User: What shape does this take?
Amino acid sequence: MILGIWLCAGRFVADGAPSCGQGDGLGRWILRSDHLSNGSWSLSCVLCSVNGPKLTGNQLSHVLRHRATLQHQKHAQGHHKAALALDAPSVDAFITVYVEARKGHAASQAIENVGKRRKIKRMRFCLAEAHRAMDRRFLRSATAISLMRDMRKSRLMIRFVVVSAKLEVRRGLLGIHRNFGHSARDILRATSIILRRAATVCGNSCCSFVDMALLRHIRRQVVMICTDSAADEMLAAEMMRQSIASDMAVLTPNPRVVLRDKAHSSRRTLVS
Assistant: This one.
């Protein structure tokens, strides 16, 4: 019933028909259902759909809120380039999301004056991918890479230390893999998956791809592996640098040192 009243008021157009909304009306809108997977319908603003349909919602409150946005006002004034630049959140909004993430707030929580759950998740993905992009840029210039690997409760974590030719140092988390198994072969496969993910651009998105040149460079430049003293960990470290199993290729052919983590050995001594 509400939709019928809106259409009769002459403020919307359905299926691309000419608009008859004028004066202080709500502008030109197109009723769309072809861009929604669940078969429902939504309204698309004509002014803001320059580069594709911009779905707004299907309620009057959604329309009013969209009309009040700065981007819609820029489009209405004819400043399309300035309006398109507003598609991305501001730097201050990203800083707010980063600060909230550092405090331990869940990504499913809305942030006032920034956005709700869906937008916050996307912004946190952008922040994470930007950090990973800086890691990949530094890894491309690496002359030596050290990997520190640890396993606990079916989770494998690898941290890295990278040194460049200018003696610049960068440390960080290479990746985490879950539920992979407990044998040396399983650890080796999980390590290979983490290395591949580290060289993947925009992982877990529709446009992700693996930078194979970077992956080969990382594998060549690993010179040290640090693990605990567990038998499966030590065997996996040896399998990374020499072909012990005939059906598995050498993952990192150039490690010079395999270290045993002293923190683990001291803990084992104290426990025993």
